[in-house]
From TrEMBL:
Keywords tagged on the record: Aminopeptidase, Hydrolase, Metal-binding, Protease
Residue intervals of the Peptidase M24 C-terminal domain: 530-589
Species: Emcibacter nanhaiensis
Lineage: Bacteria, Pseudomonadati, Pseudomonadota, Alphaproteobacteria, Emcibacterales
This protein's name: Aminopeptidase P family protein
Family matches, as InterPro entries: Creatin/AminoP/Spt16_N, Creatinase/aminopeptidase-like, Creatinase_N, Pept_M24, Pept_M24B, Peptidase_M24_C, X-Pro_aminopeptidase_P
Domain of life: Bacteria
Annotated family: Belongs to the peptidase M24B family.
UniProt region (Disordered), positions on chain: 145-173
Start and end residues of each Peptidase M24 domain: 308-521
GO cellular component: cytoplasm
Length: 593
């Protein structure tokens, strides 16, 4: 199938006078999870991960992914057509430059790439006398038979009881920030920013309650929201108020052109190049600036914090019920990865305010657990069997919060190596959970805390230790992170992140322990300055059968036991019978004999 699609695409490129093309995993809003009709990378290559890009010439192809997808990309793509490469170490501009000749033209879709990316690749190709050219219409769309239509799902209001702040107040704050930059307006293309600013949600994107739209916010607090008219009913119009004008999404370009002679803020890292080109041609004066919604969206208010605590507590009930069921059924060897995934979903669906999963569940038995972003399929589904590690990474979208949790459990009896690796991951998890740090520190300053127990014996994991999480929005939210790449954004009170160190032994097993944490400020009397710390939001037992207590320090054991006591207190009253018995046993204190 891949070969036939490649042939059709290359013929289209010939008709356009192009010698190559770049295909990112992206839509015009730079979403992580994209609508079905924007899954061009998956359609062309077979790779279904949430990050990556492909490049092709008339005779070769390559696909670039990060460390999460190293194994997955090899399994899903034809290596004869697309050589798998590292997204960060193997630069796409270098790959193209090595293959072009003078006069070659490499195409790209300006609605799918940022200006920063285009400048970098264009400069590299120009050294070889080649050119990077925008296309008016994506050539994949022209050869993609049966391409899905746009979603017609309605947009809905997100009540103040969950958002914690009226949209009018948010717009006034952002407008004031826009005015201080000397701008007349700011263009917004990120769907989570628009959803947060206008307090609207939808279902146009899988796992994330987003509405396909654009927006222009003016310095006086008024705004134009570009959205399919069929998505908006009278109730939503009234909710948005008179200061928000509605226009069809197809009118966005015309309205950009009307900003001539205006000073306009646009985010060069998050906004596609087409917007810049349209504004520049119209004569607007561009002010490069970060999307003004990103940081305030990340710093949750008290209503959002209360909501996310409540959502996590309900989610914990569902996950505990699932783990109790798994403890009974797993050793029988009768269930597989998809059976387990579906059972977990059924428990979540019982919980109030549940709307959807927050991402595709990673249900990995044995060697499949070593594939960081594995997705079980009818072809790959593996049975859970005795003496096997099982990794399940999942989350829920609730009206009052977004959850993300990973647990690794043993089906039967673990090996000493598995207990050693699990305990090292746990020690790293605890070190990060207990971290205290001054204001102004970013996640990059903390990342090594979680890795040290693995580094001590020459081990590591090839993904970040933590990502930001939204409030009934994206399960992966910026700008905050805990990783070696997260130097630029200090952690601030109200930010929610994941704490998820891991270890993966290819072909055998994977281990990851993930809780979500909230950044909080606390000051003790003996301290000279307030310090930041983490409040753990997730309350689900960590499999103590995999813990080598002799490798743990007394403070680590104390943390572990206090954590499990909190799990009992929060979840216990909501369980009964076998499930309650399982919880009591799973949360027994860890004791060194």
């Amino acid at each position: 199938m891949t070969k036939g699609r490649l042939l059709a695409l290359r013929q289209q490129l010939r008709d356009l006078g192009l010698q190559g093309f770049v295909v990112p995993h992206a839509d015009e809003h730079q979403n992580e999870y994209t609508p079905a009709n924007a899954e061009r990378l998956a359609w062309l290559t077979g790779f279904t991960g949430s990050a990556g890009q492909a490049a092709l010439t008339m005779s070769e192809g390559a696909i670039f992914v990060d460390g999460r997808y190293t194994l997955q990309v090899r399994q899903q793509t034809d290596k004869r057509q697309f050589a798998p490469l590292d997204l960060f170490e193997d630069k796409i501009e270098d790959w193209l430059a090595e293959r072009v000749k003078k006069g070659d033209r490499i195409g790209y879709d300006p609605w799918l790439h940022t200006r920063e990316w285009i400048g970098k690749v264009s400069d590299k190709l120009s050294e070889k006398g080649a050119e990077l050219l925008p296309v008016d219409e994506n050539p994949i769309d022209q050869v993609w038979q049966g391409r899905p239509a746009d979603s017609d799902a309605p947009a809905v209001s997100h009540p103040t009881e969950y958002s914690g702040e009226e949209s009018r107040h948010k717009r006034e704050r952002i407008a004031a920030d826009t005015k201080t930059k000397g701008a007349d307006a700011v263009v917004l293309t990120m769907l989570d920013s628009i959803a947060w600013l206008f307090n609207i949600r939808g279902s146009d994107v899988a796992h994330t309650p987003l509405v396909s739209s654009y927006a222009i916010l003016f310095a006086d607090g008024s705004a134009t929201l570009f959205i399919d008219p069929g998505k908006v009913d009278e109730d939503l119009k009234g909710f948005l108020g008179k200061q928000v004008k509605l226009a069809d999404k197809s009118d966005f370009i015309d309205h950009l052109k009307k900003l001539k002679q205006k000073k306009v803020c646009v985010d060069p890292k998050r906004t596609h190049a087409a917007v810049f080109e349209i504004l520049e041609k119209a004569g607007a004066k561009l002010i490069p600036a970060d999307d003004p919604c990103v940081l305030p969206k990340a710093m949750k208010n008290e209503a959002e914090i209360t909501g996310t605590r409540n959502a996590h507590n309900r989610d914990a009930i569902a996950v505990c019920k699932f783990l109790a069921w798994l403890d009974e059924m797993g050793p029988k060897g009768e269930i597989d990865e998809i059976d387990a995934e579906e059972k977990l979903l059924s428990f979540r669906q019982e919980q109030p305010l549940f709307k959807d999963t927050s991402f595709g569940t990673i249900s990995g038995a044995g060697p499949n657990g070593a594939i960081v972003h594995y997705r079980a399929t009818e072809q790959s589904r593996r049975k859970l069997e005795p003496d096997m590690l099982y990794l399940v990474d999942s989350g829920g979208q609730y009206l009052d919060g977004t959850t993300d949790i990973t647990r690794t459990v043993i089906i039967g009896t673990p090996t000493e190596e598995q207990k050693d690796r699990f305990t090292r991951v746990l020690k790293g998890h605890i070190a990060l959970a207990q971290a205290r740090f001054p204001h102004g520190r970013s996640g990059a300053h903390l990342d090594s805390l979680a890795r040290k127990p693995l580094w001590d014996v020459g081990l590591d994991y090839n993904h970040g230790t933590g990502h930001g999480v939204g409030s009934y929005l994206g399960v992966h939210e910026g700008p905050q992170s805990i990783s070696r790449l997260g130097f630029n954004v200090p952690l601030e009170p109200g930010m929610i992140l994941s704490n998820e160190p891991g270890y993966y032994k290819e072909g055998e097993y994977g281990i990851r322990i993930e809780n979500l944490v909230l950044v909080r400020e606390r000051k003790f009397e003996e301290e000279e300055q307030p310090m930041l710390s983490f409040e753990t939001l997730t309350h689900v037992p960590i499999d103590k059968r995999l813990v080598n207590a002799y490798m743990m320090t007394t403070p680590e054991i104390t943390w572990f036991n206090i954590y499990h006591a909190q799990v009992r207190e929060i979840v216990g009253p909501h369980l009964s019978g076998k499930e309650k018995d399982w919880l009591m046993k799973a949360t027994e204190s860890l004791v060194v004999l």
